[in-house]
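Researcher: Let's walk through a ligand-bound prediction step by step. First, I give you the protein sequence. Second, the SMILES string for pyridoxal-5'-phosphate. Third, you return the three-dimensional complex as structure tokens. Ready?
Model: Ready.
Researcher: Here are steps one and two:
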Amino acid sequence: MTQPTPDQVLAQLAAYREHDAPTHGGRVLSYVYDSGLAELDELAGAAAAQVQAVNALDPTTFGSVALMQADLVTFARDVLGGGPGTVGAVTSGGTESILLAVLAARERWRERHPGSRATPRIVAPSTAHAAFHKAAHYLGLEVTAVPVDPASGTLPAARLVEHLDDATALVVASAPAYPHGVLDPVAEIAAAATARDLPCHVDACVGGFVLPWWPGAEAWDLSVPGVTSISADLHKFGYAPKGASVLLFTDPDLDRARYYALTDWPGYPVVNPTALGSRSAMSLAAAWAVVTRLGPQGYAGLTASVVEATASVRQVLDRVRGLRLVGEPVGPLLAVTTDPGLPEAERVDPHAWATAVARRGFVLQGQPALTQADGTTIPRSTHLTITPVTTRVLAELGRALTDGADDVRGRPPGPAAAEGPPGAGALPDPVALAHAARESGELDLAAVLALIEGLPREQSAGLLVDFLAAFTAPRA
Ligand SMILES: *Cc1c(COP(=O)(O)O)cnc(C)c1O
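Model: Step three, the predicted complex:
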């Protein structure tokens, strides 16, 4: 077999890219955060190329890594209300920032509870990001997911405070929480944490680089007394390519606890500030370039267009009969659910709606219903993240949202919502589903979400794993 030429390799990649959802242009309202500025994409690509061969493992050998990280931490500290003592890291994304915040909190808990056989806990509203559950799973903690009001998407701080005890290692608030875009009562939660001498993490992964310029947001950042750490993703509303997030600590001892160092092995002395060892500096350089180019002024301008687009979309949604927003979102994330106050013939199922809107050219994100520990159910919803490019497609998007609802109004909700778990015989085969999806490039997300709602969560999680393993498996 002859080797393919570079051109042939790139042509094959271009063919693979045909399988991707569009990353630009505002047609996908999750996953991607398009500033609409082509110049930024080019700048990020050029910066990444410059450091392609750099190993960010060792900032003493590759000094540019230390300098870029320091610039990004300084920028984030200044826009996120940090003081001169605020320190932190650049990580690969929100999940890694949260993993390290949880690690630091666990180390502190262990130090303060020597010999304890209790399992340390994260206490968080049930809307806190899945990354906290993942961190707990990796690091040997448990999560107390405190029920939120299904209608508002958040909770009075007192309800969370009831759960703080000796086993609590970390208290969490989101600014805002991903599912519904609602801001938790950060000041009250942080005050309760500090009264018990507990660390309080604000998850501003999605809000961190848009809420600082959002009108009317209540205080939620490091300037709030009692907040000890914050995560903010550069690869979301920082408009950097994927692979960059910032984690900041107000307490230098907590910050130290995120490091890993080892001197007793026969190789090079190891000191890792984050989870990985050898790693690319490309996403760091790309994020650094974008942030340096935009500066606070650039972010203020981009946020102004997001504010405007969000107001327009909310206006459209207000007029769609059969749907309503969940809670009072602060920022550019919205979740839409069925208006339960209407007779069935006038209701719109949010997942059927998402499917109808997709047929009209816009990809929204379905979210399953969740029954919480207190028996209340957060209704199934459909999520929209508004970005600067949304302004360019507003009229078309508005029509798709409105007409999509007309398409499905009065249709009964998908299968699992009312009927409970399907019998084992009715379960789809995840491997067959994966192969079909890989062949056709299409996946019936509403059916997947209905399945998730209908099954016990261990079982649905297992099905997802089987599905993805098959979807990404080597081809026969
Ligand atoms: C996106 C997000 C995360 C996780 O971040 P990744 O970058 O996807 O790992 C955590 N919390 C919130 C609120 C988020 O929106």
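Researcher: And what stands out?
Model: Residues 93-95, 98, 129, 131, 174, 178, 203, 205-206, 233, 245 surround pyridoxal-5'-phosphate (CB under 6 Å). Residues 416-422 have pLDDT under 50 and may be disordered.
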